[in-house]
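Thread: Newbie trying to understand structure tokens

Hi all, I'm a second-year student working on a class project, and my supervisor (Dr. K.) asked me to get a predicted structure for one chain before our next meeting. I've only ever worked with sequences, so writing a 3D structure as a token string is new to me. If someone could post the tokens and maybe explain what I'm looking at, I'd be very grateful. Here's the chain:
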Amino acid sequence: MFTGIIEDLGKVTNLKEDLNNLHITIRSNFVSDLKVDQSVSHNGVCLTVVSKNQDEYTVTAINETINKTNFNKLKINDIVNLERGMKLGERLDGHIVQGHVDQTAVCINIHEEKGSWVFTFRYDASLNNITIEKGSITINGVSLTVINSEINTFSVAIIPYTYDNTNFNQLSVGSEVNLEFDVLGKYVKRLLEITNKNN
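---
Reply by user tm_fold:
Sure, no problem. This is what the structure looks like when written as tokens:
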């Protein structure tokens, strides 16, 4: 479980294909605090640490993860947003994030607004995920608030701190990002679907 508050920016130092799996090696500032079997969010994808050394660690993504996320475009030297699992008793500064990416979206517009940025994304609405105005969304692991919610597009406002301390500063029009929709909204939506089906 995560909060969507990014702890560190990691650099991809190695990618190794192994049958349908992809072993991803990351350089990070908190490697010394990690242990094997620990969960870490990478651009919003929860992956397990399988090995580590002094300043790098490795995680493994299976085929389903690669196909559902922007990991199929991952390259050496890419910068990824990192967050370790939340601790019980800590403040929940973002929102409840599972690290289970629902689908990807494409950045279609970036607009600077006197000290902040508005990023607009388009996603495939046929997968039945939805956003709501002022609702929560996770983009590349970052907990954000939705504005301008439409059927298959939405925007988020990015303050300078978030821009400087996440990989939002690496995004451009056409960039693909990972989306995790709000888990509470997903449960409500599913309950309504079941109710409507039974009526």
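A couple of things are worth pointing out once you decode it. The helical segments are 63-68, 160-165, 183-198. Residues 61 and 153 are 28 Å apart (CA to CA). Feel free to ask follow-ups in this thread.
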